[in-house]
């Protein structure tokens, strides 16, 4: 069974601050999206990568892919994204040709995920799990609060979930293709990851080990960390 990856890269990156769309920002001179595409194409199991570009930036992303060295055994498609991450992933799924039974969804904003993590996710889907997410234990204790209406006002704590039972989930998340398509067709309300939609269908989702270097570049400090990780790899 062949594996395709959908890379949602259509976000603006508001939390990163003003500048180009997040996926097009450089990390040590190379756009974040190119790092992410290479991280996926590095897996021998991956034969197609669908990049979901900013709505007005599909042509620019195509040029970017043409201008960077990428493995020849992998095919690339570029489609325009939507207003929400969910819509962008949907656009990527709609563009998938037949013949790919396994689909990974990977944030362009996680450019440094190691290939072993990618392969671990694919292997778990091949072994029969309809939905697989790479996950890590939490360092911080987490509080559930009653969100305050005013910015920075004190927020009452409602509960403290047992930390040992919590996981922070990353991407790539891996799916049986038909399951993911069905999940995207039937989902209601706000979901922040694709596996959450599969949970809504009542189907099992499993966690496999994630990796520290698969962290999401979200705020300015994450750019500093990402460049430090790249520098350490080259050393
Ligand atoms: N994404 C997307 N389409 C959107 C919104 C997000 O494809 N309409 C993608 C982003 O490009 C990113 C991934 O989803 O690769 C994870 O989203 P996030 O880290 O929240 O990125 P942004 O939405 O760009 O950042 P922010 O929320 O700070 O604006
Ligand atoms: Mg976002």
From TrEMBL:
Keywords: Isoprene biosynthesis, Nucleotidyltransferase, Transferase
Class of enzymatic activity (EC top level): transferase
InterPro entries: IspD (IPR001228), IspD/TarI (IPR034683), IspD/TarI_cytidylyltransf_bact (IPR050088), ISPD_synthase_CS (IPR018294), Nucleotide-diphossugar_trans (IPR029044)
Keyword Transferase: yes
Catalysed transformations (reactions): 2-C-methyl-D-erythritol 4-phosphate + CTP + H(+) = 4-CDP-2-C-methyl-D-erythritol + diphosphate
GO molecular function per UniProt: 2-C-methyl-D-erythritol 4-phosphate cytidylyltransferase activity
Site feature location: Transition state stabilizer: 15, 22
EC numbers, comma separated: 2.7.7.60
Family: Belongs to the IspD/TarI cytidylyltransferase family. IspD subfamily.
Protein name as annotated: 2-C-methyl-D-erythritol 4-phosphate cytidylyltransferase
Organism field: Streptomyces venezuelae
């Amino acid at each position: 069974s062949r594996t395709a990856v959908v890379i949602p890269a259509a976000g603006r990156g508001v939390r990163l601050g003003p500048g180009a769309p997040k996926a097009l920002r450089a990390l040590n001179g190379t756009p974040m999206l190119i790092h992410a595409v290479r991280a996926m194409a590095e897996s021998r199991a991956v034969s197609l990568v669908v990049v979901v570009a900013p709505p007005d930036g599909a042509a620019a992303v195509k040029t970017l892919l043409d201008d960077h060295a990428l493995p020849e055994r992998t095919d690339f498609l570029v489609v325009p994204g939507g207003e929400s991450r969910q819509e962008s992933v949907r656009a990527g799924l709609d563009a998938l040709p037949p013949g790919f039974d396994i689909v990974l969804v990977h944030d362009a904003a996680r450019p440094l995920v190691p290939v072993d993590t990618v392969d671990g996710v694919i292997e778990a889907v091949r072994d029969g799990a309809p939905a697989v997410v790479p996950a890590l234990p939490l360092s911080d204790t987490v509080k559930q609060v009653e969100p305050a209406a005013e910015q920075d006002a004190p927020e009452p704590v409602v509960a403290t979930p047992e930390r040992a039972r919590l996981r922070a989930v990353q991407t790539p998340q891996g799916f049986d293709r038909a399951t993911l398509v069905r999940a995207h067709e039937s989902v209601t309300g706000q979901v922040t990851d694709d596996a959450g939609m599969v949970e809504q269908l009542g189907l099992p989702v499993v966690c496999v080990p994630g990796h520290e270097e698969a962290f999401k570049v979200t705020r300015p400090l994450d750019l500093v960390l990402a460049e430090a990780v790249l520098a350490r790899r080259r050393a």
